[in-house]
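Title: Request for sanity check on Thioredoxin putative prediction

Description:
We are preparing a figure and want to confirm that the structure record we downloaded matches what your pipeline produces today. Could someone re-run it with the sequence below and paste the raw structure tokens into this thread? We only need the token string, no images.
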Amino acid sequence: MRTFFALLLIALVSANSEGLVSLNPDNFKTYQNSGKTLLVKFFAPWCGHCKRLAPTYEEVAQAFTENEDVIIAEVNCDDYRELCQEHGIRGFPTVLVFNGEESKKFQEQRTVEELKKFVLENVPAKN
């Protein structure tokens, strides 16, 4: 129960109006181990491709605000270089989906539809 409230507090503090959560070294593992599907965009603010992806990614985040099984998040690799290195990030933007410790790289076209499809394909079936 305590973990739930800690996660809820972190979510309220770090989520913006579009439902996009900003991750950092202090909260990454909490979200990763939340039991939810975690989609993470690793980006750099100066990156042109990242800037072009931003509105699309925000739309994806908005689409999943009511889905309790999914968290849409991002990591600023300029601010948290070590965190990005831990996850093998070598180019920007890189989008990974996490289910616990396992991750899978998004490699399709960067459209709202493809990103949503990728997320839904990676949500574990409920028993």
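Thanks, this matches our download. The CA atoms of residues 94 and 104 lie 11 Å apart.
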